[in-house]
Automatic annotation (TrEMBL):
<feature type="region of interest" description="Disordered">
    <location>
        <begin position="488"/>
        <end position="514"/>
    </location>
</feature>
<protein>
    <submittedName>
        <fullName>YALI0B10538p</fullName>
    </submittedName>
</protein>
<dbReference type="GO" id="GO:0030234">
    <property type="term" value="F:enzyme regulator activity"/>
</dbReference>
<dbReference type="GO" id="GO:0031011">
    <property type="term" value="C:Ino80 complex"/>
</dbReference>
<feature type="compositionally biased region" description="Acidic residues">
    <location>
        <begin position="501"/>
        <end position="514"/>
    </location>
</feature>
<dbReference type="GO" id="GO:0006338">
    <property type="term" value="P:chromatin remodeling"/>
</dbReference>
<comment type="similarity">
    <text>Belongs to the actin family.</text>
</comment>
<dbReference type="GO" id="GO:0005737">
    <property type="term" value="C:cytoplasm"/>
</dbReference>
<dbReference type="GO" id="GO:0006355">
    <property type="term" value="P:regulation of DNA-templated transcription"/>
</dbReference>
<dbReference type="InterPro" id="IPR004000">
    <property type="entry name" value="Actin"/>
</dbReference>
<feature type="coiled-coil region">
    <location>
        <begin position="277"/>
        <end position="368"/>
    </location>
</feature>
<feature type="coiled-coil region">
    <location>
        <begin position="407"/>
        <end position="434"/>
    </location>
</feature>
<feature type="coiled-coil region">
    <location>
        <begin position="524"/>
        <end position="551"/>
    </location>
</feature>
<dbReference type="Pfam" id="PF00022">
    <property type="entry name" value="Actin"/>
</dbReference>
<dbReference type="InterPro" id="IPR043129">
    <property type="entry name" value="ATPase_NBD"/>
</dbReference>
<keyword id="KW-0175">Coiled coil</keyword>
């Protein structure tokens, strides 16, 4: 595990120097870092980020520092200045010349320039390859009119680096902070008209990495700064030897722990107060007591409900007996109608149906199974004519007929269950015959049924997720359905709440099976019985497929697919460890895996980042094979020179060599080398050039500037051409 780091304050290089009037100062004014110093020393005297900021708060700044300007590493001392730090560059061009002057003020002050009211020194500075005339004009105006320097010479940093490494003829590949340049050089002179630029460098790569991490962890608690992302890029990314092959197996469980990098961001851990053993024991006892009380209340409620149902059953039996005792004359029928209407029943059949329902419910409450063996009862008086019976026997006959009706209803229920059981057995037999005769069709049918169940489960989970969001369409439809039901005032008045919908001839709800879906629409949870049935059906289908389908393996099981160890998404987000959403440590972790090779790969495949340009290897191969004669190209092949800060990404040289060899003819004398010090060799090249006569003849003096104007330049081997 690695800590999330940021740029910290660091001291300047310990290179002794002393100011003298007329000496030469070399300034590598980069978009990322500035390196400055006297050319008669062994290295740059100043190295600092090209950033400025201001103290915003008096409390943090201290007395007299509020509003003071900070430059370079001083921006990273205080949080307020770290947040306000800004660069003079917008992309590869200087856009804020006020900030640029602050950086130059800091540079000359730290170099202890002792001249009064001006910088009485010669200046060598870098400029962008094919820099716009306005940039050069503004820079010379600042140096000559703002600082009063003696002379100015501008050159391309990549060419200075090549010169510092004794380059003569070759191909210079400069992978900078804002862009990558491929510059052919012949006899020390850059072939500017054949120079190519790819708009990708260290800063754009860092921004791309930040975008990938933001998409990967949209709810990450900490907002990564540009400098933090740059440190992640520098410390953990590398160029892959074979990008596609390595990417295909990067997220495999085996070895992922070694391939990925876990970045731990700082966080404040919330420590929960631990309870003592006595407190835990008291809590457990209270829970046990609460459970016991709930069980007692539930038992009492069940007993109360059972007693109520038994009273209802007895009451309805008495009413049924009264109806049996009534005669068939007009008065008896009128009395029977009055009793049925008062009880909310349409006819005697409805009452008998209610009695049967109550008996069935009571038996279930008493844990009596309808399938238990019953003694066949006898009803001797049920079929005897009334003329042959006494009045008491007639009453008993009516009672026996009622009991026989209940008994016959139970027998029909048993027969229906037996028929359903036989139907299921017949379906299993037919299914087995189908499997034997047409295995391929049988397997395809099982797959379709399994996919249908998975689709329903997925849709149900999606619906539940949408219902939790009160602004979602599903939630709005649910409220609309509830409002529609509440607004429906059509209802029948029944004497007793136990009357069913069958008793109301005007109420047709339920006649269509789709009517019942309204309850699924407004329910907060799906039907657990339906889910249970689906799970059982899915388990049976998967068991059949696992046994008879050669292409269906244990990895295809739903249980295996939902296991985090087999989840590609889990490996991508959380690596080869189980994720605990309650862990604050894991909530503040970044898992770098495919990003480690994806971001540097953009140099070779810019389309990964949406850039419609060729990669560095393709551009270099085009220059070496198509833009020069074979004799010149063969010489350039022997010195492919790589420089620039972003070129220090591990394995870049080896990958570039392999890519170029695949593009060049077999046996080509290809040699790829890197700058001895990619970050400082540009400054070292300036210092080396300042000791030559060519430099003295190539600088623009103050007198030339005053006579020719800010657009005048002198062409030399390391600078841009004049295109005025």
């Amino acid at each position: 595990m690695h800590k999330l780091t940021d740029i910290e304050w660091r001291p300047q290089p310990n290179v002794p120097f002393e100011w003298s009037a007329g000496s030469t100062i070399a300034i590598d004014f980069g978009t990322h870092m500035t390196r400055a110093g006297y050319t008669d020393t062994n290295g740059p005297n100043l190295v600092f980020p090209t950033l400025t900021g201001k103290y915003r708060e008096r409390k943090s700044a201290g007395p007299g520092l509020a509003g003071a300007t900070t430059v370079g590493y001083d921006n990273f001392i205080e949080p307020s200045t770290r947040l306000s730090a800004r660069s003079p560059y917008d992309g590869a061009l200087v856009s804020n010349w006020t900030v640029a002057e602050e950086v130059l003020d800091y540079t000359f002050a730290k170099l202890r320039v002792g001249s009064d009211g001006c910088v009485d020194n010669h200046i060598i500075m870098n400029e962008l390859m094919s820099s716009p005339a306005a940039q050069r004009r503004n820079l010379q105006q600042v140096l000559f009119e703002g600082y009063g320097v003696r002379s100015v010479a501008l050159g391309v940093d990549a060419l200075f680096s090549y010169y510092a490494n004794d380059g003569k003829t070759g191909l210079v590949l400069s992978v900078g902070n804002e862009a990558t340049h491929i510059i052919p050089v012949i006899d020390g002179i850059a072939q500017r008209e054949l120079t190519k630029r790819i708009t990708w460098g260290g800063r754009t790569a860092s921004a791309f990495l930040a975008q990938l991490l933001q998409l990967k962890y949209p709810t990450f608690p900490l907002k990564l700064s540009a400098t933090q992302t740059t440190k992640i890029l520098e410390n953990h990314c590398y160029v892959s030897d074979g990008y596609k092959e390595e990417l295909d197996g990067f997220l495999d469980m085996d070895g992922l722990e070694k391939r990925e990098r876990v970045i731990q961001a700082p966080y404040i851990e919330t420590v929960k107060a631990e309870k003592s053993a006595e407190e835990l024991e008291r809590i457990a006892e209270r829970r046990k007591e609460s459970g016991r009380r709930l069980q007692e209340q539930a038992a009492a409620k069940r007993a109360e409900k059972l007693a109520e149902r038994e009273n209802d059953l007895q009451y309805y039996r008495q009413q049924a007996q009264i109806l049996e005792d009534l005669g068939d004359d007009r008065q008896g029928k009128r009395e029977a109608r009055r009793i049925l209407d008062s009880e909310g029943f349409k006819d005697v059949k409805s009452m008998n149906k209610k009695i049967a329902e109550l008996e069935r419910t009571i038996r279930k409450s008493l844990n009596q199974d309808v399938e238990e063996e019953e003694v066949v009862p006898e009803f001797p008086l049920a079929d005897v004519p009334d003329e042959e019976l006494t009045p008491l026997q007639i009453k008993e006959k009516r009672h026996q007929r009622l009991l026989r009706a209940n008994y016959e209803a139970r027998i029909r229920a048993k027969e229906e269950k037996e028929a359903e059981k036989a139907r299921i057995e017949e379906e299993k037999r037919k299914d087995e015959e189908w499997r034997i005769t047409d295995l391929a069709g049988w397997v395809e049918d099982k797959r379709e049924k399994r996919n249908a169940i998975l689709a329903r489960q997925k849709e149900r989970a999606k619906m539940q997720k949408e219902l939790r969001n009160r602004k979602s369409m599903a939630s709005k439809m649910r409220m609309k359905n509830i409002a529609s039901l509440a607004a429906d005032t059509r209802a029948t008045k029944r004497a007793r709440p136990g009357a069913g919908i069958d008793d109301d001839p005007d109420d047709t709800f339920g006649a269509d099976d789709q009517d019942w879906s309204i309850y699924n629409d407004i329910a907060n949870q799906s039907d657990s019985e339906e889910e249970e049935n689906e799970r059982a059906a899915l388990a049976e289908l998967e068991a059949n497929l696992l046994e008879f389908d050669d292409e269906f393996t244990e990895e295809n099981l739903l249980e295996s697919q939902t296991d985090w160890k087999s989840s590609l998404l889990h490996m991508f987000l959380h690596g080869p460890t189980e994720y605990n959403p309650e862990s604050q440590e894991q909530q503040n972790q970044l898992h770098l895996n495919v990003e480690r090779i994806r971001v540097p790969e953009v140099l070779f495949q810019p389309t990964i980042a949406g850039i419609d340009q060729a990669g560095v290897a393709e551009v270099c191969g085009d220059i070496l094979t198509k833009r020069f004669p074979s004799e010149t190209a063969s010489v350039m092949l022997k010195d492919v020179f790589v420089t620039g800060g972003y070129s220090q990404v591990p394995n870049f040289d080896a990958r570039l060599t392999a890519e170029l060899r695949s593009l060049l003819p077999a046996g080509s004398p290809l040699q790829v080398r890197s700058a001895a010090h990619p970050e400082t060799d540009a400054w070292m090249g300036m210092a080396k050039w300042s000791k030559t006569d060519d430099y003295k003849n190539s600088r623009v003096t103050r007198a030339m500037y005053e006579e020719m104007g800010p657009d005048y330049i002198k062409e030399h081997a390391f600078g841009n051409s004049s295109y005025l």
